[in-house]
Amino acid sequence: MSGATDHTGIKPGEVTAFLTDSTLCIGCKACEVACKEWNGISADGFDFTGWSYDNTGALGHSTWRHVKFVEGQITPGVGGNSAQQVSWEFSSDVCKHCEVAGCLEACPTGSLVRTEFGSVYLQPDICNGCAYCVVACPFGVVQKNEDDGRAFKCTFCTDRQKAGLMPACAKACPTESIKFGRLDELRLEAEGRLATLQARGMSDAQIYDPTDSSVKGLHALFIIRGEPETYNLPPEPEVPTVYLKEGWKSAAIEAVVMISAVVTSFLFLGRKG
Amino acid sequence: MNDAGQNQPEFDIRENRLDEIRRKASELGAVQQPGIRAAGSPLPKASPQTGYYQQPLLKEPQWTPLVPLYFFVGGASGSLGVIGSLADLLGEDHDLARKARTMATAGAAISSVLLIADLGRPSRFLNMLRVFKLQSAMSVGSWVLSGFASSAAASTLADILDTQVDGSFISAFLRSVGRTGCTVLGMPFHNYTGVLIGATVIPAWNNRIRSLPREFGMSGLQSAVGLLEFAGETESGALNAIGLVAAAFETWEGLELLRARDPELSPAKHGLTGALIQTAGVLSGPLPLALRIASLFAGGRKRNLRQAAALSGIIGSLCLRYGWVAAGRVSARDWKTPLKISAHEQLELSAELIEKY
């Protein structure tokens, strides 16, 4: 598919996804630039992190694509790395658009919704900046813009998708490291790609898509080399709402203790004077 | 180096190294060996043991200091609502009950103001009532606050009406609505904030999902008792009994936290946030417990002892909430817990590094 086609042929109602392949990423950050330009997001400033060549740092309210620069240990290279040099992988991170999304569950205004493409969308005209989604995201994606007052995150270019266009980052990616398509098709494609990589000797390649966790799988799949921890991808992400039952049970028990204390105290000791 | 004179061999090694670098540079035009290690080296790597350069995965909570204050006012207000609804129904202490109701209403109003002021877009506060979501503790809390505030206002309105008109039908209606609402909603209102922060991804909060509602609830009840005592109700034996129960529970909760050994609880045990939470534990647990027990036996100084217990409980309740919210911010910077990297793996890594360098 040389020269990304303009029309995806995907209709609303079909579940779409990203497949980000770190073995194809060259770390050019075209996705970051394309995302910022299309969505009109402010710049992050010229910050120097000091801990690697990654000066974007992390996803946030003004960073919806983030290219991670993973400098590995000095190991005999596979795929072109010489033994003297560190292995270097890049991986473009993005909102995972979880199947069961912590932010969406937590949102008290209904600003965060599930779109017709199966993605998680934050409606900026509804958000009142309560910031509860910030502490509900197991991937640390959504963040409140303190200047603006509202929370922001990747929109999955829902506007473009509605017009039959692929998201800006996927379109701008020069190596097709970021693939866009139907979720079920991309899951199959990921399996195929994994088999190819392993046949080439990259035995450490794996797909990151925690379907057996409480997030029940992602709409942004990743092909990575080595363990997910290296990429700051949690091995067992959890939707925090799974703890609600325990919390409310505890609250109910405490409330019963309080009522009992108040009732018995005033029944037996409540007479004035 | 100031110790160069004392440590001649090391000084020689370093000087010789400089000579060696000079020789290599002139011979080869380049120096290949690593020279001086950068400050702070070995620099963090991206690896299964060190995560992504030890960068935190999670975002820090972005609430302003108004939120822990809301947790405090809400906890006291909810408990005051329950006390105000039941005190005169069961115990004939009308004066105390009326004070509790008035304070509950004021607390609910202040709570609403604090919550709205914390929003990034305060003008959109009504969006909280666009939907009702059981799966969102924030949504449930917003509705509980609205319902409780309305019930408390109805109670206070009935109290005001009673001073004007004798035995009005409207005041009887408002009173029963207010009493039911304040009792039923006062229970979740005084402790739901523990569920709110527990059901998040912040490791320290999430680890205490079971105890936070109990701790917040009981210390809220204790500050309600304290506020009533400051309003002059130091003679009520019932209030002291409630305060005793709350202080006993808080003592037990404090011991539970001391016993817990999970690494993600570090911000609740160490550093400034740990100190705040530990102080809160003493001020809302053993100290008021001792003062309240002493007040049972002290004749003349009973009032002073109860006021001291009240003050201790109120400050403890405030510290507890500020401590836990601050601990959450520290805990969000914990890069290990979300990646399930254990202390054991860390030890292995440091052993490996020591071997290397």
Mind explaining what this structure looks like?
The complex is a heterodimer of chains A (273) and B (357). Chain A is of the alpha+beta class and 273 residues long. Chain A has two domains: 223 residues, Alpha-Beta Plaits (2-Layer Sandwich), CATH 3.30.70; 35 residues. Helices cover 25% and strands 16% of the residues of chain A. Chain A starts with 15 loop residues before the first strand and ends with a helix. With 357 residues, chain B is mainly alpha-helical. Chain B is elongated, with a radius of gyration of 29 Å. In chain B, α7 runs antiparallel to α8. Chain B folds into two domains: 141 residues, Formate dehydrogenase/DMSO reductase domain (Formate dehydrogenase/DMSO reductase fold, Up-down Bundle); 151 residues, no CATH class. Classes of the chains: A alpha+beta (273), B mainly alpha (357). Chains A and B meet through β2, α2, β6 and α6 of A and β1, β2, α2, α3 and α4 of B.
Short overview:
The complex is a heterodimer of chains A (273) and B (357). Chain A has 273 residues and is of the alpha+beta class.
Topology:
The complex is a heterodimer of chains A (273) and B (357).
Chain A: E1 16-21, H1 30-39, E2 65-71, E3 88-94, H2 102-106, E4 112-114, E5 120-122, E6 143-144, E7 151-152, H3 158-162, H4 168-172, E8 178-182, H5 183-199, E9 205-208, E10 220-225, H6 244-269
Parallel strand pairs in A: 1-10
Antiparallel strand pairs in A: 1-8, 2-3, 4-5, 6-7, 9-10
Chain B: H1 8-28, E1 46-47, E2 51-52, H2 66-91, H3 94-118, H4 137-164, H5 169-198, H6 203-207, H7 211-230, H8 237-259, H9 266-269, H10 271-284, H11 286-297, H12 302-332, H13 343-356
Antiparallel strand pairs in B: 1-2
Helix pairs in contact in B: 2-3, 2-4, 2-5, 2-7, 2-12, 3-4, 4-5, 5-7, 7-8, 7-12, 8-10, 8-11, 10-11, 10-12, 11-12
